[in-house]
Design brief:
- This protein has 9 helices and 5 strands, in the order αββαααβββααααα.
- The protein is an alpha+beta fold.
- It has helices at 2-11, 30-38, 44-57, 61-64, 111-118, 122-132, 137-144, 148-162, 167-180; strands spanning 15-19, 25-28, 70-74, 81-89, 95-103.
- 51% of the residues lie in helices and 18% in strands.
Length: 181
């Protein structure tokens, strides 16, 4: 069962970091590992985790944190806002988890409609979504588990179908189209 859970967690499109009481990172899924390669984790994250563990120890979790715990930040080097959502488990733990969620440009577009309009394949749409979210070809290749040259080939097809020559023009075309609808 642990192997099944690990596969599911590693395939999640959002990052997950799980802390133990000693504030060691007990578990980091694949998406969180990618995040940590690109950005520094805001210092408030371990501070909040420590406060949650302290509240658990004094049985004051619900009075100290009466609702959901979120932290929103724009990080250096990112054009996106990031949401860090905390969750707490007392069994088997205790442990504190953090979901790392990026507010992405591609989330603002109806990608199915874009796919239809540009007559893109599903794989080209997968590539386009990641291009719009600011990933480099190597990062797209790693995330989709394909060769970087395959990413370049798909991008060439996308440029041809959309009548643009580069990522910037592609993003501008799609954002202008989305703004007009």
């Amino acid at each position: 069962m642990d192997d099944v859970i690990r596969v599911i967690m590693d395939k999640l499109p959002i990052g997950v970091i799980v802390y133990t009481r000693k504030l060691n990172q007990y578990y980091t899924n694949r998406a969180a590992s990618h995040f940590l390669k690109r950005y520094f984790l805001p210092e408030e994250i371990p501070q909040l985790a420590r406060r949650i563990f302290d509240a658990l120890a004094t049985a004051s979790l619900h009075s100290s944190f009466p609702g959901e715990v979120y932290l929103c930040r724009r990080l250096d080097g990112s054009s996106s806002n990031w949401i860090f959502k905390f969750f707490v488990s007392e069994i088997p733990g205790p442990f504190v988890g953090v979901f790392i969620i990026e507010e992405r440009v591609s989330q603002k577009l109806d990608m199915n409609e874009v796919r239809k309009q540009l007559r893109l394949t599903r794989r080209e749409t997968d590539i386009l979504r990641r291009v719009l979210d600011g990933l480099k070809n190597a990062e797209i290749a790693e995330e989709l588990e394909i060769a970087e040259q395959t990413v370049k080939d798909h991008l060439s097809n996308i440029y041809l179908k959309s009548g643009v020559e580069n990522r910037f023009d592609l993003a501008r075309l799609l954002m202008n189209t989305a703004g007009a609808s």
